[in-house]
Write a structure and sequence with these properties.
Blueprint lengths: L5 H20 L9 E4 L2 E4 L1 E2 L6 E7 L22 E3 L35 E6 L7 E7 L17 H5 L3 E5 L4 H5 L3 H6 L8 H16 L5 E11 L1 H11 L9 E5 L13 E2 H14 L5 H6 L2 H4 L9 E2 L8 H6 L8 E6 L11 H12 L3 H7 L5 H31 L4 E6 L20 H4 L12 H20 L19 E5 L3 E5 L3 H9 L2
Parallel strand pairs: 2-5, 7-8, 7-9, 9-10, 10-13, 11-12, 13-14, 14-15
Antiparallel strand pairs: 1-2, 3-4, 4-6, 6-8, 15-16
Helix pairs in contact: 11-12, 13-16
Length: about 525
């Protein structure tokens, strides 16, 4: 037999050693690698110390939207050489410095740094198996379209990924950088539209997921979009948008919808939004779009403005309610709901002032209004104002979406009502089941939120996250060992109420919600 060169023998021995190790470990080479190839190049992630989940943080899904790309649709990511370490979150979108307020301690906020216009990054948590088609969950954060980011502690994706799904969280531009419209921006756009850059970021991320998620072990045809507050409103926009067609097959919307005008967040027509853009340009002495793009980000943020989704004729051809009325939405299974105590009341009126306001606004229906929102004492008036704030900002619109979906949609809708008052110290107990309070439960992330948790809290988190994972997997939240969650309809109005545990019942506050919606 001819003698093999020493180098060949060494290489052969090394290959055999790798194969033997893989056989003993029960693995095929590459199956559990934390280095994978995606468009743009290779990336590496970080394997958890307590589970088999690998986190890939700070993956660029588009070119940095800076300089000439400020206020443009997301552009393709630029390839890189070598292996990009994706071991930390990318910068959060440009916004004001995060400062704790009300019940919102740092666990609900992005870190103070880094914050940058260069923010188009996403994160993936997965048990890496290249041959598995795991369901994909895409989280879109809230923040009133002016703040937020994926680095918020309670948005960690490991706990959900441990349950067999792929968790993806996506950054998108907010405020003036995400939703500024201007006649020159409309003119330069190939779609003859401007103002919805934040939504276009979300759509670009969904397209990236479609092309790349298989490399992480995900199924590109089983994608659930989900969000809370402004993230929930974003989900509703994507369900309505023809541009997002085919990019997801299920939707979860928590405390937010676009079916009814929100007193805090109002959509504008393209013409109206362009006028705001012209006013900003005049205020900062920008004679052209080129000048406007050169102005430092920090300076632009000094000038007030209400920036939110625009009826631009492209991403949103019409108001969302009209798109649904014409049955032109992306008809997918929906899981939606709201919390018992979420409200934002700046100052409370006494009983006399609240009663007078009711008479002025509701006229002959004032007595009926005060039946649902009574004000016989000052204390009762305060409770009614909290409830009214919740209904007008969050519940009414979600209620209408659920009703519309159940009546005319081909796909089912499941409704929840989160009534659990989070355990808290004296400083926070008054907030009850507050806005965003359900997120740590549905993500099974109580460990990231510093509260005096009880065993019942962990059991509720287990229940809720299992329901959500079941829905993400199949479009139905029900599963073994869980109380039955019925489909919602406008005959029985059955919803899942989460409090100390979980149980179905008629949707709380249905009568007042119906009264309020009927007046819109």
């Amino acid at each position: 037999m001819k003698k093999q060169p020493a180098r060949t023998v060494c290489v052969l021995f090394a290959c055999i050693s790798v194969l033997l190790y893989s056989f003993v470990a029960g693995k095929t080479p590459g199956k559990n690698s934390d280095t994978i190839a995606i468009e743009g190049g290779h990336i590496s992630g970080v394997k958890s110390e307590v589970s088999d989940v690998v986190a890939f943080k700070g993956i660029p899904f588009a070119a940095p939207p800076v300089g000439e790309l400020r206020w443009k649709a997301p552009q393709p990511v630029k390839p890189w050489q070598g292996i990009k370490k994706c071991d930390s979150f990318g910068p959060s979108p440009m916004q004001a410095k995060p400062v704790p307020f009300m019940v919102y301690t740092p666990e609900f906020l992005i870190p103070e740094t880094p914050i940058s216009e260069d923010c188009l990054y996403l994160n993936v948590w997965t048990k890496v198996r290249a041959d598995n088609k795991k369901p994909v969950f895409v989280w879109i954060y809230g923040g009133g379209f002016t703040s937020g980011g994926t680095a918020v502690p309670i948005y960690d994706g490991e706990a959900m990924a441990k349950k067999g799904i792929i968790f993806v969280s996506v950054n998108y531009r907010v405020g003036v950088f995400g939703f500024l419209a201007h006649p020159e921006l409309t003119k330069e756009s190939p779609d003859n539209a401007s103002g919805n850059y934040g939504l276009l970021d979300q759509i670009a991320a969904l397209k990236w997921i479609k092309r790349n998620i298989a490399a992480f072990g995900g199924d590109p045809d089983n994608v659930t979009i989900a969000g809370q507050s402004a993230g929930s409103m974003s989900v509703h926009c994507l369900v309505a948008s023809p541009v997002a067609k085919g990019l997801f097959n299920k939707a979860i919307a928590e405390s937010g919808s676009m079916m009814i005008t929100n007193p805090l967040i109002k959509t504008s027509t393209l013409t109206g939004a362009e006028q705001q853009g012209l006013k900003l340009a005049q205020t900062v002495n920008a004679a052209s779009l080129e000048d406007l793009r050169k102005i430092p980000a920090a300076k632009l943020m000094k000038f007030p403005g209400r920036y939110s989704p625009v009826i631009d004729g492209f991403v949103l051809p019409k108001p969302v309610e009209e798109i649904f009325a014409e049955r032109k939405e992306n008809d997918v299974p929906v899981l939606t709901g709201w919390n018992a105590d979420e409200s934002f009341v700046a100052a409370f009126k006494n009983k006399e002032a609240f009663q007078q306001e009711a008479k002025e606004q509701y006229g002959p229906d004032a007595d009926q209004f005060l039946k649902y929102y009574p004000a016989n004492t000052d204390q009762e008036a305060v409770r009614s104002q909290i409830k009214l704030s919740r209904d007008m900002i969050f519940a009414m619109s979600g209620y209408k979406w659920a009703g519309t979906q159940s009546k005319q949609g081909k796909s089912p809708v499941y409704v929840y009502y989160f009534a659990h008052k989070l355990p808290a110290t004296a400083d926070y107990v008054k907030y009850g089941a507050f806005h965003t309070g359900e997120v740590a439960y549905m993500m099974d992330n109580l460990k990231f939120l510093h509260r005096p948790w009880q065993p019942a809290d962990f059991e509720l988190a287990r229940l809720m996250s299992n329901y959500w994972v079941n829905f993400i997997t199949s479009g139905n939240p029900n599963g073994t060992g869980l109380p039955v969650w019925p489909k919602y309809d406008t005959q029985s109005y059955q919803a899942m109420v989460f409090d100390k545990g979980a149980g179905k019942q008629e949707l709380p506050d249905k009568a007042e919600l119906e009264f309020m919606v009927s007046r819109k």
